[in-house]
Design brief:
The protein has 16 helices and 15 strands. By secondary structure, it is an alpha+beta fold. Helix 8 crosses helix 10 and helix 8 crosses helix 15. The protein is globular.
């Protein structure tokens, strides 16, 4: 599935628009009928139901996990016959577990999927329930930003509901920059490399990367490719007008390797997962962290919160528009088509998504949602970091989706492994392009 990214800048620009009022569920546990001359007849109590909710919020200290916990407890209090059983994993663990579950057609009642190419095989296998009817309930569909659900739709059916609408940015520690004598964030790749050297000379880890979860390195690499080529490189490969031997791709590999060889990343980056790397940044142990804007709330509420800032990824060799970003329509909630409690699960997910914007706003984590938010961020006391990210999202001029959200899974796996290998050893950049092209030609 290939879609235009033109809508994305509109949707992101609308991330601060109103309006949403959280609604309750329509389900009822017990009702008393007083018809027939005033006699009372109590309807049977609803059966007990357990809904398994697989998610990617394993750290209970993060805003995302707190929001999940709050809404789940709220629902369970209002629906005493329902138990929500959480299966909280980090991103790569969840992806691997879901593949195993899908192979045996034992997908949990609710699971997490990523948009476009990453969820297509699951949809084609008939593993997810269409959610169109649920979206029409209580006006849920109208709470989403324009166009965002397209990334989760196949054959006019929506199969998952996203938790966010994000862009990739560079977070940085203002205090560590000042300690190293760096007056302002870099605006060019050359300045970024120079800052890496300055920071290292001061004994400061320049940047963290949780490359045990291979998508993290790819996310950064693809942002460099966005600068050297502009948007649409992978689509050009699919269309046949370009291939992975293109100079823009080789130039991006060269630049990525320059960062690695300059010692930009912490030791053991390939053995550290996403959460561990983020915690290094949040506790002041590195100066920079390239990640999706979904990390804003967790960073803002961390040890370094008041010292945290954000900047646009710089130009590379004078190329690229810094208002173009890696676009990240969020991970999304899908319901198993084989669930024993499809309707009960839909009722819960409908409730969850209707409550999600309000609870996220209250938890100071609503800037990056995929839904419209009713509230004044500044008046509610959102931090300078949150407002900086909101300003960036409001000025997005387009960009690209990640590699694994665009290409088929087999080619994506070769890509992820290839980029991870660059953290371990320096290789000929042209050979990286050939490796990618061979994988693509073999898996069209």
């Amino acid at each position: 599935m290939r879609k235009s990214t033109k809508w994305m800048s509109v949707a992101l620009a609308g991330a601060l628009t109103v309006s949403l009022a959280a609604c309750g569920s329509d389900s009822k546990d017990n009702e008393t009928n007083t018809s027939n001359g005033g006699s009372t007849t109590e309807t049977p109590k609803a059966e007990n139901v357990t809904i398994t909710f697989q998610n990617i919020y394993p750290d209970p200290s993060t805003p995302a996990a707190k929001i999940l916990d709050k809404i789940v407890k709220q629902y369970e209090a209002e629906h005493t016959n329902v138990k929500i059983e959480l299966d909280s994993l980090n991103t790569d663990q969840q992806k691997a577990k879901l593949k195993t579950q899908a192979a045996s057609k034992e997908v949990p009642d609710i699971t997490i999927v990523n948009p476009a190419a990453q969820m297509k095989d699951y949809v084609d296998a008939g593993l997810f329930a269409p959610l169109n009817d649920m979206l029409d309930k209580n006006g849920l569909k109208d709470t989403f930003q324009e166009g965002i659900l397209n990334w989760y739709s196949f054959n006019d059916n929506v199969y998952a509901l996203p938790d966010g609408n994000n862009v990739a940015v560079m977070f940085y520690n203002k205090k560590l920059f000042a300690d190293a004598g760096i007056a302002a964030p870099p605006t060019t790749f050359e300045e970024l490399l120079a800052d890496v050297k300055i920071l290292k000379d001061k004994g400061i880890t320049p940047m963290v990367m949780g490359e045990k979860d291979t998508w993290t390195g790819s996310f950064l690499f693809m942002n460099i490719l966005l600068r050297t080529n502009g948007p649409g490189f992978l689509q050009s490969v699919v269309d046949g007008s370009k291939n992975f031997s293109d100079p823009a791709f080789t130039e991006a590999v060269d630049a990525f390797q320059q960062l690695v060889q300059a010692g930009a990343f912490q030791d053991g980056a390939t053995s550290m997962d996403y959460n561990a790397a983020e915690n290094l940044f949040k506790t002041g142990k590195s100066a920079m962290y390239f990640m999706g804007s979904w990390a804003t709330g967790a960073i803002d509420q961390s040890t370094i919160g008041p010292d945290a800032g954000v900047f646009k990824f710089p130009t590379v060799n004078g190329k690229g528009n810094t208002d173009e970003y890696m676009l990240a329509p969020g991970s999304a909630f899908a319901i198993s088509a084989n669930s024993k409690h499809v309707e009960a699960t839909k009722d819960f997910l409908n409730y969850f998504m209707l409550q999600f914007p309000k609870v996220s706003f209250d938890e100071k984590n609503a800037v990056t949602l995929a839904q419209k938010v009713d509230g004044d961020f500044a008046a509610a006391g959102y931090s300078p970091l949150q407002m900086e990210v909101a300003g960036i999202k409001g000025a997005v001029k387009g960009g690209d989706l990640s590699f694994d959200n665009t290409m088929n899974p087999a080619t994506s796996q070769v890509h992820l492994t290839s980029i991870q290998n660059l953290f371990v050893q320096k290789v000929d950049s042209a050979s990286v392009g050939k490796e990618h092209q061979t994988a693509y030609d073999s898996n069209k």
